Amino acid sequence: MMYKTIAIIEKSNIIKEGLTHLLKAHNVCLQIAKLDSMDDWFFVFKDEKPDLIIINPDRLKDADLDKMRLKIGISDKIPVIGLLYQYFDREIYNMFTSTIYITDTDDVVLNKLRSRQKKDQDAESSEKLTDREKAVLKLLLKGMSNKEVADKLVISPHTVITHRKNIVEKTGIRSLSGLAIYAILNNITDMDEISDL
Amino acid sequence: MYEIDTNISGTSKLTNVIIEHPNVLNVLEYFNIPLGLGDKTIAEVAKEHNIAPNTLEVVIKVYCRTIPAKILNKKEVHDLLMFLQTSHNNFKLVKIPELKSLIEAFSKEIPTEYGKMLVAFFDEYIQEIDEHFMYEDKKVFPYIANILHDKVTKNFKIREFERNHTDIGHKLLDLKNILIKYIPPSIVSEYRKQILHKLVNLERDLMYHTQLEDNILVPFVKNMESNIKNNK
Fold first, then answer.
1. Domain count, chain A
2. Which residues of A touch B4 (CB under 8 A)?
């Protein structure tokens, strides 16, 4: 599996283009977004976020990675790799998922990215809905509220919400009416079991 | 593979930009600029069609996923507003109906119950997006048009728009997933691919549209609001 979009945040064009060239030559990803600074972030990314970020620590405001994640709305599941060629406190590069140095050879850089990829892949759960998730979906499609589903299945409303989140993540479908089509296509429920959504 | 960076400026030849970034064809459509561009630059084309050159450049840059300059003057914002309004009309009267008729044609080639659900799903989307556009056309854009004449309407502030500016893309993404992943391979129809092409196109178009609203229009209006307030 390739990365879809990698964002490179770096001021130097020489470094940025060099890294882009390397990623392209080895088909590491489909798209590369090159940004001079975090100020440009929201122009490039709105709903769709990159799946990997490579950033020079000098582009981080207040040298705070968590703050940046919060500001741009990316979870800590998305790896952020430090791109290093200046002096930084060890504390700063410890914040990153991993780091690459401009003195690294191509193979070393690629291996670091690939080993990230493998881990990310393993973390991704299976796509199939569990029986419990199917049961929750079926009831939701009947028009029940989270609370009603919780009562019916004797679980907490909070658990229902977690199931819902997982259903959306696994299927890639957010709207209930879209999920209704999914459920019919996958024989999870019948036409006459679906209320007007 | 494509890269999200290009050196586009007012002096770029529009033909070259379009060859690299076919999305820009939509920009021409909404600005009512006909093809047959010859070797004209973005700035020359803008001048010829009485569009503020910076506006055309900013819009094209956004449609090429590059980062535009941020500051626009009143004439430039006026032209941006025109662009956004014509885009709305085009979405409502052309792009969405086209998609709808393809979905209807597709629904006739698949088992009736799926077909009905798909059509109903898309109708729901149309209703959502109509409401979204209506709010902007009736409330937000007139407010901004007033502000360009230094008139501030009392009962509305751009903050309200910012808060209400909901994501209208997720239903399209749902539909993409249904078509790509879930309708089984046994259902063979040319329409499926056609719908997907149009869907991806519309989705991108709406994304750039929203970027223009959120990142160019809103900051300008906010600035105007506080200027007008301070001058009072």
1. 2
2. 31-34, 44
Give the pLDDT confidence of B200-225 residue by residue, as tens digits: 999 999 989 998 998 899 989 988 88
Residue that finishes a domain, picked among A102, A123, A144: A123
Q: Could you tell me the residue range of the domain that residue B216 belongs to?
A: 74-231
Please give the Cα distance from B66 to B74 (Å, whole number).
23
Q: How many CB pairs below 8 Å do chains A and B form together?
A: 87
Same domain, A17 and A108: yes
Q: Which of B102, B131, B135 is nearest to B119 (CA)?
A: B102
The enclosing domain of A51 has a CATH number of 3.40.50.2300
Tally of residues, chain A: 197
Interface test with B, best of A3, A177, A190, A196 (most B CBs within 10 A): A177
pLDDT in tens, A150-193: 999 999 999 999 999 999 988 989 999 999 999 998 889 888 88
Do A28 and A85 share a domain, yes or no?
yes
ipTM: 0.77
**Cα A71 to the center of its chain, rounded Å:** 15
Encode burial over B81-109: b for 16+ CB neighbours within 10 A, e otherwise: bbbbbebbeebbeebbeebeebbeebbee
